[in-house]
Structures are given as C-alpha cells and as structure tokens.
Amino acid sequence: MSDSKFKNPIVAWIDYRLPVFSFMEHELHEYPTPKNLNYWWNFGSLAGIILVIMIVTGIVLAMHYTAHTAFAFDSVERIMRDVNYGWLIRYIHMNGASAFFIVVYIHIFRGMYFGSYKSPREILWILGVVILLTMMATAFLGYVLPWGQMSFWGATVITNLFSAIPIVGDSIVTLLWGGFSVDNPTLNRFFSLHYLMPFVLVGIVVLHIVALHQHGSNNPIGIDTKSPQDTIPFHPYYTVKDMFGLGVFLILFFGFVFFAPNFFGEPDNYIEANPLVTPPHIVPEWYFLPFYAILRSFTADAVIYLPISWLMSAKLAGVLAMFASIMVLFILPWLDHSPVRSARFRPLYKQFFWLLIIDCIILGICGAKPAGAPWTYIAQAATAYYFLHFIVIIPLLGFFEKTKPLPTSISEPVLKGGGGSSSAANAKPMEEA
Amino acid sequence: MRKYLISVAVVVSVAVVTSSTVMAAGDVVKPPKQEWSFSGLFGTFDRGSLQRGFQVYDEVCSACHSVRLLAYRNLMDIGFTEEQVKKIAAAKEVTDGPNDEGEMFQRPARLSDRFVKPFPNKQAARAGNNGAFPPDLTLMTKARVGGAHYLHALLTGYKEAPKGKKLAEGMSYNLYFAGNQIAMPPPLSEGGVEYADKTKATVDQMSRDVTTFLAWAAEPELEWRKRLGVKVILFLLILTGMLYGVKRKVWADLH
Amino acid sequence: MVSSADTAGDGAHGAEEGETRRDFLMLATGAFGAFGAAAGAWPLIDQMNPAADTLAASTTEVNLAPIKPGQRVLVKWQGKPVFIVRRTKAQIEAASSVNLANLPDPELDAKRALKPEWLIVVGVCTHLGCIPSGTKQGELKGEFGGWFCPCHGSHYDTSGRIRKGPAPKNLPVPAYEFLSDKLVKIG
User: Which of A167, B64, B66, B250 has a Cα-to-Cα distance from A8 of 20 to 30 A?
Assistant: First the structure.
C-alpha cells in the first residue's frame, strides 16, 4: 500500500479497497485525449451537465407537482407563484429541455461532420442514438405534465400515432391511455415514466462514456492517435476547456431563463387542458418539428407515398417514416463506408453535410407551418431528400468521392505548421497505429 | 462557403423559432407593438398603472372574468397597504364551510383567499353570457400570441363591422379577434371608471392600465426575475472571463 | 454545474507534485466558482421552505359560543391540532395554585391564558410530536387532569404544562386574539 500513487493516507486506504480514486485518476485525469479537439467537442460534456441540471430541478419540481388532471395545471402555477424560487426552478427545467436538445443536436451533427460514428466507434454512436430516442420520449412525457392545451393535444396526437399499427393499433392506444381518451390515468403514468426515464438515460450515458473511453475521442482530423505526442491528459486541459465552454453556455442559457423564459414555449400551454376544444394550430415543441414535418408529409396524394401506397395507408407510412428518420441513424456507420472520417478531407461529403443541415432546418420550418400548400410540398421534397441523403448519397460517396490526402499524425500539421498537406498519407487511415 | 452556409443556417433557424411563435393569427390584423413599462431588460411595472388597472378589473372585468390564481394578499405586491387590501378583500364574499350545522356559509374574504370568481362554475358562466365562456384572465398575457400587445389591441379594437360582414346575434366586431367576431361586447367606455388618482379614464388609458395589471397577474415574478437575472449574468460573465484566463494559462505550455 | 468550480480550481493540481502553480487567477476562479455554486444551490434548498400561500393561510377563526364550561374542543391551525378549553373554576384554581419551583418548565398560568376561562394550546406533545389524549370525553387525562401523551407517557396539567414524563416543554401557546367575546382568531 505504501507504493500507492495517492499521498493522502485516507485516499490510499480507501483506494486499496475500493478503487474509485484510481478509476477517476485513470478516466478523468490521465485519460489520453487528442490534443487537437476543437470547441465542437465541448458539447458532449455539456449535454451531460444539462442532464444533471434537469434531474436536479426535476426532482425539486416533483416535490410540488400534483399529477392529477384537476390539480396539475394549478400546481404548476403554484410553483410559479408561491413556491420559493419556484418560477426560477421551473423556468430552468422548461428551458433546460430546449437547451438539452440544442446541445445534443450539435453534438450529433459534430459526430456526423467528423465521422465519429465510424469504426471502431459504431456502438458508441448507436448508444448515442438510443440516448436521443430516450430523450425524446422523456421530453414528450414531461411536456404533458403541466396539463395545458398543448400538453393535452400533444399527448393525444402522439399517442394516436400508434393507432396506425394494423390490427392491434387501437388496443395499444387504449392501453397507453388507460381509458378511452387522454385522461387522469394517462397523466399519472406519464408522470411516473417521466421520473423514471432520466435515470435510464443516465445508465445509457454511462455506457456511452465507457464505449468512448475504449478507443478515446475522435478528433477534427479524424485519424487515430499514434504516439503520446498526439495526446494530452484530459485533466486539466479539457476539464478547464469544458468549464469555459460551460460558462459561455450558461450565459446564453440564463439569458433565456431570466429575460425570455417563454421564448421556446407555446402560449396555448398557459391555457388549461380542455378535452373538448382543440387549439386551431397544434405544433409540437421546436425540437420535434422536423420529425413532425416528416410525419405530415405522407398524405394520400403525396408523390413520396405513391411507391408504397399499395402496401400501407398514408397514415402508417407517415408514422413509419418518422421513426425511420431516426432509425436510419443506427445504420449510418455501415451506410457510410468511406475510409476517411473527417469531412475536412472529404470535399463532397462536406457539401452534402451542409445540405443536410439546411434540409433539416427546412423540415423544421415546415413542421411549424399549418398543413397545406406550399408547405406540405416543400416538406415532402425535404423528406425525400432527407432519406436520399442517408440511403443513396452517403453510400455512393464512399465509392466515388476523391478524398484529400491525410496527414500522418495529429501532431504533424502542428509541427510542420501546415494543414494536412502531407503527400505521404493516403494510405489506410483507419488502421490502428 | 462554409461561413456563408453557417450564417444561413443560423438565420433560418432563428426564423423557424420566431415564426412558429408569431403564427396562428390567420387573416386577423397583427396587433401593433406598444411601449410597456415592464418590457425590456430592466422594465418594471408602473405602480400607478397597476393600481388603476386593478380598479378597472375590479369595477369592469370582474363582472364576468375571474383571475382565479391571484390571492388578495398578492395586491400588497403592487403598492397597496395591508389595510387597503384587507378592505378590498372584506368587500367580497366567499363561500366557506361547512360549519357545525353542515351548511356552507358566506363570509368576507381574507388576505389568504383567492380572488372571488363571478360565477360558481363554467356552466353558470355560459348561461350568464349568452353561451360564451368568459375565460379566466390570470394568465391571459402569457396565453395569447402577442401577449400584452394583443390584449391592448383587442380592448381598443372594437369597430363598426364592415359592410357585407354578417355578425351573429349578440356578437361584436373586433379587428384583432380571430374571426373578427367576439362575444364580449365593448367592455370599456370613456369615463367608465373614476380613477382615484384623477387620471383621465379614456378607453386607451383604461385598456393600458388593465393590461399592465393583467401582465403582472400573469408574471408576478417578472421584476424579481429580471433583477436576479442581471446579477446572475454579470456574475457568469466575470466567471467565464476568468475561466478563459485559466484555460489560456493551462494550455499555454502546450503551444 | 456544482462541481465545476472546484474542478477549475484544481487546475493547480501540480502543487501535489511539488510545483507551486497555485497562482492567483486559478485560486480566484475556484473561489468565485464555488461561490456561484453555493448561490445556485440556495434556491434548491429554499424551495422546501413553506410557500407563500402556505404562510398566508396561517390564521384560523373559532366561534367559542357553543363551547360549554369544562368542555374541550380540537381545531386545526396550520395543519396542527389546537386544544381549546373552557375551563371550570376548579381547573383554573388547580392551574394557578401550583408551586412553579416544582415544574420542569416553570410558567405562570396567567401568562398562558389571555382570559383565564379560555386555555388555547397547540396539541402537539413537545417530546416527539404525538397528540396527547384528554380532549375527548372519556380519554385519559393523565395524573394532573390535563392531557396524557400515549406515545411516551408525558402528563400535562390543566394549563397545558408538562408535569411528568419525557417531554421537556409545556404545550406551546399559539398567538391568538379575541375578535369579540365569543370569537377568537388563532395565528
């Protein structure tokens, strides 16, 4: 024990029996990290921190919330008015959901741009997609709890998606509701599940990090780290960088919380749920808008529906397409078989990446607009392009794209002062060094 | 190219979010923007306007509309003294009980009571208002697109119906109401209340005051929120600046 | 968010290896961040304190007219039981003639009842919070004719003072005022 790396005898004593300090030392301190990570790499830890903020504020809100249709709306307003700092905690939780999605979406697109999903990080990526799905479910469940008009009708519309399933659909919806419409049993189970899901999320996040630490972070150049020269210990370099990034994030975040707390919200959700009146224009929260647009694209007369119209109803097609738009991410590591990870060395892929971003934004706009011309047609085109990108363009790029030469190591561009102009390195960059 | 695309992406995404909140107005005229004492980073509620607004609510709106989430004690936050509020409350009757005989009974309201509703339930409210339900006003400025601007526009937006526009029985024409037909008759009329502070009670003035009052009713935390917000943001700016310094320092030996 | 500040302060980790790099900026940042974390934790703690509506609803009015001499009633105030007793001459006598020196928590009966006829005390045993018996007819009143706490055997007298048993204090007297002869406001 005297040869313990910990000077503090208590720490050494504990660590000999329960190696938590060794673990932290290994995974947080020494953990070798590529030295060239840019600020886009901040968003992973940021997402983790937001998850913690959401759990903490959520537990606190649950101390005052009443999951009953007769009291839910008023109990939330009581939090806003009478509970000490209740408005602050609730606004943090409310805006935190939006912030969580902004950060995670950036995190995902960062992974796409720099090819972080490629071997050997496929499972890391898949776990990330599972996290996204779990987040979406959690956010949806949580949005129902204030029991406003959007809560109620959002719950009604989304649960009705399952009625598209042939034969058993209606039974499934009745099961989800625990009745014949969204009502008190539904609210109660949604509260229970909304409380449960974040902890499931924590579990998946842990696996996500385990998978990350197996091969270490990808990096902007996208080639493997080859020598100790290429890496630096995570602490203090990236801890302090993450903290700085957190500071910037918090400034923006609290800007919304304190000065525009309802920016991301819908006015209709400040009207108590009324099962007899549907608001004239239902929209989901902004982070679901692109998926909502895909769902609505499949109308009976839509061109994208015609090829499968003999197979299923337009309703079912829309629901399947919406789920498929996320499911396609699961197989992205195999759809993209280009040996080069980073878009910096993939001139064509880079263009298509930005096209995809624009496509997603267009889908988002369409999702916010009332159904009808011209938005429906734009949404249909954007939906078609979305799937075209993943199913056709990405695989084809693997065959036809002429990639730029890669530097031989991460340190090289730094040492030579040049940006990856080495002639030596068009060889197989994916190989472990 | 990339910079350009990024900026396009940013502009478009901002547009998405804002457009999704500004919609739903349909073919109705957009309410004009007003200056409010409580808007902006440092805005606070004008106390005089709040108290006049309460008077307008109390003497006009409360005949049909509830503000069920407010309690009388809350009025102390807008500059009324405890004695004044007790007097205001004592003039209202609330149903309490049951008493020892098992009967419900009426008693004067206390500070801790919520604002008394004009109708005991929704059905009674409909029955008393030609079938239309006068909505609760507590959250009105948060629950309508356009918020306070919309509310003020609606209260002052009663016009003669244009020729050819058929109004249903008992309905009024309003420029800013969805569908332009509103069940509420014009609620405010010149000199409809006599302000204690001698402010001239024009329709515009009363509308402004009651809108300010209702904006406060919807967001009683607004002033506290902004005050705390300024402090928090300042703190974070300094902390982040310091963290940047530390980051530079830590990374200095690498380059 | 909470641990963030400390981690930043740990930027001076090198001190352990003998380097003295704990320079001012890092220390200051760490301290500043720790302050922020502590301030951020306060709302999360303070929300557990009674909310504004809970505090506001803290008075109860009781009509005393139907209470007969010698009768005890139980009313609820702030979610707690309050005993109201219309004491008989004998009970007042018993309460005021006690030698204070013998009491664990000496208090004059005159100090505990605004009007000797009416005793108003919070009905929560000062030991561990049970409700002492003796308010309803036929319940045990203890050795001193007041109340008896069944949980751990504390005896209270007709002034609500602790006389025997583990409880350290007398039953507390809530703030109250007589709005009229027969109407009292508690709180």
Answer: B250
Cα within 13 Å of Cα(C19), Cβ side = 8
Please tell me the predicted confidence (pLDDT) of residue A433: 35
Residues A430, B121: Cα–Cα separation, whole Å:
70
Structural domain for C26, as ranges:
4-46
> Are residue C104 and residue C124 in the same domain, yes or no?
yes
Same domain, C82 and C27: no
Correct CATH for A31-282 of 1.20.810.10, 3.50.50.60, 3.40.50.150, 3.40.50.720: 1.20.810.10
Report CB contact under 8 Å: C1, A84.
Answer: no
Q: What does the pLDDT read at residue A307?
A: 86
Given a cut of 70, the residues of chain B with pLDDT beneath it are 1-28, 255
Overall number of domains in chain C: 2
pLDDT, position B19: 47
Give CA–CA dist C133/C139, Å, rounded: 6
What confidence score (pLDDT) does residue B8 get? 52
For residue B63, the model assigns a pLDDT of: 94
pLDDT higher than threshold 90 for residue C17: no
Q: How many CA atoms lie within 13 A of A345 on its CB side?
A: 26
Q: Which residues pair with B181 in a beta bridge?
A: B173
Task: Identify the segments of chain A with pLDDT beneath 50.
Answer: 1, 417-433
Q: Are residues C59 and C34 in the same domain?
A: no
Is A208 assigned a catalytic role?
no
Please give the pLDDT value at position A429.
43
Q: What are the helix (H) ranges across A279-427?
A: 289-297, 314-330, 332-335, 347-368, 375-388, 394-400, 411-416
Reference C117, options C185, C77, C71, C76; nearest CA is C71
Q: Residue C166: how many CB atoms within 10 A of its CB?
A: 14
CATH code of the domain containing C141: 2.102.10.10
How far apart are alpha carbons A291 and A320 in whole angstroms? 11
Q: Any residues with CB less than 8 A from the CB of C8 and at least 6 apart, and which? A: A239, A240, A243, B243, B246, C26, C29, C30, C33
Residues C163 and C144 in one domain: yes
Q: Are residues C36 and C94 in the same domain?
A: no
Q: Which chains would you list as touching A if contact means 3+ CB atom pairs under 8 Å?
A: B, C
Cα-flanking dihedrals φ and ψ of residue B96, to 5°? -130, 175
Question: Are C77 and C153 contained in the same domain?
Answer: yes
Q: How many CB pairs under 8 A join A and B?
A: 123
Residues C100 and C179 in one domain: yes
C-interface mutation test, from B69, B249, B253, B254, most C Cβ less than 10 A away: B249
Cβ separation A257–B220 shorter than 8 A:
no
Task: Please give the pLDDT value at position A428.
Answer: 42
Which stretch of DSSP H or E encloses residue A268? none
The predicted complex's ipTM stands at: 0.90
